[in-house]
Design brief:
The structure is a single chain. The protein has 400 residues and is of the alpha/beta class. Helices cover 40% and strands 11% of the residues. The chain has eleven helices and eight strands. The chain has helices at 49-57, 64-76, 83-100, 118-127, 144-160, 184-203, 222-227, 235-254, 280-289, 307-323, 338-355; strands spanning 34-39, 107-111, 132-137, 173-176, 212-218, 260-265, 294-298, 327-330. The protein has a four-stranded parallel β-sheet, sandwiched between helices. The chain has a four-stranded parallel β-sheet with strand order 6-5-7-8, with helices on both faces. Strand 7, helix 10 and strand 8 (327-330) form a beta-alpha-beta unit. The longest helix has 20 residues, at 184-203. Bound molecules: coproporphyrin III (HT9) and fe (ii) ion (FE2). Residues 40, 42, 53, 56-57, 60, 62, 66, 70, 81, 83, 138-139, 143, 145-146, 218, 220, 224, 266, 268-269, 301-302, 306-308 line the site of coproporphyrin III. Its EC number is 4.99.1.9. Its main location: cytoplasm. Fe(2+) binds at residues 218, 308. Pathway: Porphyrin-containing compound metabolism; protoheme biosynthesis.
Amino acid sequence: MASSLQPAAAAESATPVTAPATAVAPQDVAPYDALFLYSFGGPDKPEDVVPFLRNVTAGKGIPDERLEEVGEHYYQFGGKSPINEQNLALKAALEAELARRGLDLPVVWGNRNWAPYTTDAIDELERLGAKHAVALVTSAYSSYSGCRQYREDLAVVLRERGQLGSDGSTGVQFDKIRPYFNHPGFVQANIDAVLDAYTALAAAGGSGQRARLVFVTHSIPDTMEAASGLWQAPYSRQHESVAALVTSAVSERLGHDVAWDLAYCSRSGPPSQPWLEPDINDHLEALAADGVRDVVMSPIGFVSDHMEVAYDLDTEALATAKELGITAVRAGTVGTREPFVRGLVDLLLERAALARGEEVVEATVGDLPAVPSVDRPNCCLRRHEEPTGIPALCSEDMYQ
Ligand SMILES: CC1=C(CCC(=O)O)c2cc3nc(cc4[nH]c(cc5[nH]c(cc1n2)c(C)c5CCC(=O)O)c(CCC(=O)O)c4C)C(CCC(=O)O)=C3C
Ligand SMILES: [Fe+2]
């Protein structure tokens, strides 16, 4: 088990992180006339914190104590999440990459939980005269929180605007880029970030090159895990696939087998409800008990250093490591790293070719196939086998 204290077996051979040779890179954005960068959102100032948390948690049964605690995380950072600036940086990087390739496509940014909201983004798409946008969500894996909730929120907002027809939409039409955890660009950017972290640890002295590699992602309830990735492999398994690829490339570069684990952060919900484990703090404790002294934490579950990273990992988990006498370094997220941004534009072109009905070899690395761009009905529900009747765009059931 990847999450046990036993080092996971290194992958048989290092898979080269490049697109398959047969993949012909299409260079056409048609039928799309806009790229919709769709994210979570976060507060910009202290007065935003409580209204933001209300938006995030509406109807989700998160205990009040947890909300107060999470509010404190934001106040410790001046009431401002780094996420909005990070999304603006990603938007600028995407615009630069599109321009570099001579692709003419406006990028519009919007969030589920804070301004600019979904409806603001649709207003802007309409102002630009967009008819068919492709959505890129800032989440690499399948799950309700990282996939379906974006598609539901988009459908609900379109319905509120009187623009949701039986074919999905009567206003701007939306497609979505597939979850990209196993795209070569995302994996390569994570490999680069982890290698940088090993270099930083070695510079700090000690036995850094031998550090344990601990991958971290957002915990989700077991029922959400069971409903995720129905096409082939659930949320946790998708992370294990990325972890094995990153570990294999890092082991090859360092010249020895690196041991890895997968741990989880940012659990919420009542204690009675099972969520994915082990928690990163508990896991560090177990590692310390096992004699581990050096750790590289790689947050493969997140695409930027937003609050879950800044607080749950950099503040809390690094403090836990210090108390335990572990020297720990947190690797960067993919952020605006070049292989990641280039990969996102490749994914956009791949999605456009699919929308045009062309034969496409989807670029993937590792042991899992590409997630379908049009989701299966009821995929990534909030709770396994509990359809809510809320429509979700970009799934087969919307187009029946
Ligand atoms: C899988 C996943 C991702 C990764 C994929 C992705 O990146 O999308 C993610 C990202 C994020 N989560 C974020 C913030 C929050 N998530 C919460 C609550 C929850 N997250 C969940 C899951 C995920 N969340 C779940 C199952 C809940 C319980 C409620 C529910 O069942 O939906 C809460 C409520 C309080 C709390 O419970 O912690 C907050 C404030 C921010 C913004 C950070 C910033 O402001 O910089 C980001 C990027
Ligand atoms: Fe979250």
